[in-house]
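Minutes, project check-in

Agenda point 3 was the complex the collaborators sent over. CS summarized: two entities, 806 residues total, and the question is how they sit relative to each other. Sequences were read into the notes so everyone works from the same version.
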Amino acid sequence: MTTWQNKYAERMDGVNSSIIRELLKLAQVPGLISFAGGLPAPEIFPIDVCNEAATRLLQEHGQQALQYSSTEGYTPLRQLIVEKLNAMGMNFTVDNILITSGSQQALDIIGKIFIDPHDSVLVEQPSYLGALQAWKAYQSEFVTVPVDDDGIDVDAMEEVLKSNPKFMYILPNFQNPAGVTLSLERRKKVVALANQYGIPIIEDDPYGELRYEGEDLPPLMALDQELHDEDDGNVLYLGTFSKIFAPGLRLGWVAGPTAVIQKCTLAKQGADLHTSTYTQMLLYEVAKDGFLDEHKQVIRRVYKERRDIMLEGLEKHMPDGVTWTHPQGGLFLWVTMPDHMQAREVFDRAIKNKVAFVPGYAFFPESETGYTGHNTMRLNFSNANPEQIAIGIERLGNAIRNS
Amino acid sequence: MTTWQNKYAERMDGVNSSIIRELLKLAQVPGLISFAGGLPAPEIFPIDVCNEAATRLLQEHGQQALQYSSTEGYTPLRQLIVEKLNAMGMNFTVDNILITSGSQQALDIIGKIFIDPHDSVLVEQPSYLGALQAWKAYQSEFVTVPVDDDGIDVDAMEEVLKSNPKFMYILPNFQNPAGVTLSLERRKKVVALANQYGIPIIEDDPYGELRYEGEDLPPLMALDQELHDEDDGNVLYLGTFSKIFAPGLRLGWVAGPTAVIQKCTLAKQGADLHTSTYTQMLLYEVAKDGFLDEHKQVIRRVYKERRDIMLEGLEKHMPDGVTWTHPQGGLFLWVTMPDHMQAREVFDRAIKNKVAFVPGYAFFPESETGYTGHNTMRLNFSNANPEQIAIGIERLGNAIRNS
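CS then shared the predicted structure for the full assembly.
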């Protein structure tokens, strides 16, 4: 009979379950307040709007919604995305857009079409764990560039670009996990460097529309398109409806030059034929008359309040020597404790105090089992309610103080 | 700037757009009757039942349905699948089931976790094009074993197994594209050979519940489980709701030993985090009280009628020397013309006659641009209505006669 263990492909050697997932299993404690996940606030999901849209969809287009459809995605939804992106300063037509099953699938597709074993990918340090996971399954290696309050360190980046990575992965707005935003000056420099060295940019922007203060900054895509002919350029732009509508539908997109989008489409065809026709048409039905612009205001108001309460709590309860980022939007902030402290040890004490977070080392590609970022942690402020946030931060302060 | 063309991974070299897709572009003719796709009949989609279920779901579990959920899938839906499979003679618990975004995703995951570059995979000849496409993206090679009216040729198979392929891919029921069913005797032999040579079986069964005559035969999975301890064995079983409910939701599953399912789950986590919570819960809401058992009767009645009309039409309109399979279920039958004829040439004439099919060579892995199966074609009988089928087969007979 089969010994399955001997059959697995080499690429699976480096693929492990997300550390976050494993840590969350430890966090199954009644009454626990969690800042560990990255979940939207479900109490503001627009359920009635969704219900009305579902009824209308099934009554008017039921046969189409339940049938197979094209790999590229539902054209009216792609058109809606084009309008949204062009309003942000980009320049697209529907041929530039591929609908994906959440933006996680866009990350997987990008790994599949670009990464040969042992290719290196330039990532921010810390970076989004889901991207690191997706790309390790294609046997990527990582080169890292640190982020500070203004995003990725462009001087350090230039040195790393000389090693010729396959592409660079940048989260410009309210970065997951650090909560920081790439400054305008640095955006220009990143785009210039990418063009100078011929290294494509994967721009991942799940939170860009959730800004609570300050001015929107141009996407890297928009800055890059200024340098190129139409339908050409150096950037792929990833977006999602998970944060401005609902993650349970699994709807995202990748936008870029037509030739690259066609390659992505081929990879998607083998991966899942197409994203659910029903969920694509449902989202379109919800969004076609501008509902999401209204709804974004609600989300921004609720999350801004939660962020502010978390920031106040940190001010009040954190011992000396602890610092944190001030996110202008998004879902996360990043706490740094004094260098002698270990977030993994604080985590155990925090769980006893009934509060959870993700230790920062989980987001460092070079050291998933080691100690880079040993004294850091990621806190989510979108999912817990204001009262829970106030209590949870006090508990966390106690856990740090007693560690 | 980036020259994207130089950046693609080697694995993409062998990935091309589905021939079917390209041919269908040629078939954009008004009034064309198509036997080329593999679409269910949309006029019998249970839209009202779906609508009621959607309303109930959003009213009762709206927050959960729109939120992130676990990679493994919605547990009540997995339990429902367990009950279905155990009633078919298998022996599973929920830990043996991973929900996938259509069974195409299960094929992709299997490629990802098992196929190293240049591994060979044993496939039936002809075989399902979507599997060949998914696995070529992991740089598989293929070894083939012909099918006849009783399914894969088990004597020829044994010779090929000696070359130690990574796994074998079998569609036992109403095979796509040939419409043939693996006999009981051969099922036993396939399972015995797989165990003797230690070669896993990927059993793909999208059509098994759509039988129009004869008795159900035991799945390879059930036969294999008799030979092993609980939660062990040699088979992964793939299923889908696309044919017994609706493909637009993209819901399938893979069932197998827990250890292998955990590996699949890891691969899925990086690929799309999880399948849409909403569509999983919607399907569960539709199916939980047994609706699909009722609905299957409707589908069987409609498709049996269409099959019968197609078989009658073939009898009446095909010139001497043309033969075809007699499918006991499923969506497809397979036509073989005299050896001197070229299906690709007949295709062009058929399009002029306003009828479409897929030339058989599209389903032969060794010869996507060549001539293996040059005189064969696949006909779908689920999507066109009875009147269209009668007219279309007459047109097809004329096209063959005049080629």
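Noted in discussion: Residues 291-317 of chain A form the longest helix (27 residues).
Follow-up: revisit at the next meeting once the mutant set is ready.
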